[in-house]
Amino acid sequence: MNQVLHSMLYEYLCRQSRELVLSGDSRFIIFSDLHMGRGNKGDDFLPNAPLFSRILKDYYLENNWTLILNGDVEELQRNSLEMIIRQWGGIYELFNEFGRGERLVKITGNHDNKLFSLDYPEELGKIPLCEAVRIRYGEETILVYHGHQFSLFFERFNEVLGFFLKYVGNPLQIKNRSAANSSRRRWEIEKRAYELSRENRILSIIGHTHRPLFESESKIDSLRFQIETLCQKYLASDVLPAKEVEEQIQSLKNQLDYLLRKKGKEAFVTQLYSKGLVVPCLFNSGCIIGKHGLTGIEVTGNSIALVYWLFETAPPHRGWEKHMDSELLQGYRSQESPFPSEPRIKRRIIKKDGLRNIFARLHRLA
User: Fold this and answer.
1) I need a labelling partner for 6 at 20 to 30 A (CA). Which of 85, 113, 142, 249 fits?
2) Closest by alpha carbon to 191, among 141, 150, 249, 245?
3) What are 339-358's pLDDT values in tens digits?
4) At the top level of CATH, which class does the domain 2-217+272-365 belong to?
5) How far apart are CA 249 and CA 253, in angstroms?
6) How far is Cα 39 from Cα 242, in angstroms, rounded to an integer?
7) Domain boundaries, the chain
């Protein structure tokens, strides 16, 4: 039965999708879950707004990337569109900069699906809306969609939940309750997205759960695999620099121990979605509303990468950064910056792989 439902959902998403072609010079950046509000204490977007504005303007816009916003951009369950636009007019102007170059696509999620029945003010331009984006990579398919379609609760009771958040949650300052707040719901949605991707032999890039995923692995799963791989290489080689490898293994172990303590029982729910060999078919861009920074998925030419953006002054994560590729971006070159005093920003590549390699493994393992 699940296979039939997955097949129907896949066909529906493909019918509702906008098609893009991935060529050698293509550059797609995928962000999801901004949850832009009215700028008050309950606005989840507020803390990372300066960072998001900076990277859009100084990096992705300047370097001719296509921006794909993958759902829950506006928090329309708690606020009116007019309030959000009034608060974040500068962000919409950046969106329009991408749009004027035909380099903007906006996918709806469960918190902003009202957009299909609303119109943006004319001065902000027309932002194209869709339910999914299908990226053609030769004969292969990369499907980008929000992921709430796998949650029966939110599909059935989305309007009721919106009413509660607007008229009860706002006055009492109750936080959003979504799949991102429940490890069980998160895992169930990711598992269904994984199964749909594996059955149809495609790559899926989702959002909704706010948890970054790369090649169907959570951070905990990925760390375990990296530690095992490094240990095997270290023991089998006489040329690897012993001290450097030992430091890297210890750094990864520190990360893993910290996450296991922090996640508690959730650490045992975040295991791979398959009892057999994991198929590298599911990716998640994470969210813009992270505690210290924000994550996104970059698809360029023949590769895909999970990237992490943060301010240079963000608190260090126990020294783990020295084992991660990163680059430091200069501040605004324009004196008209809305955030002229903000520090420089860092872009870190959490994980990266070639698309040919990923699809080859997908077809053999699926």
Assistant:
1) 113
2) 150
3) 456 678 889 898 899 999 99
4) alpha beta
5) 6
6) 51
7) 2-217+272-365
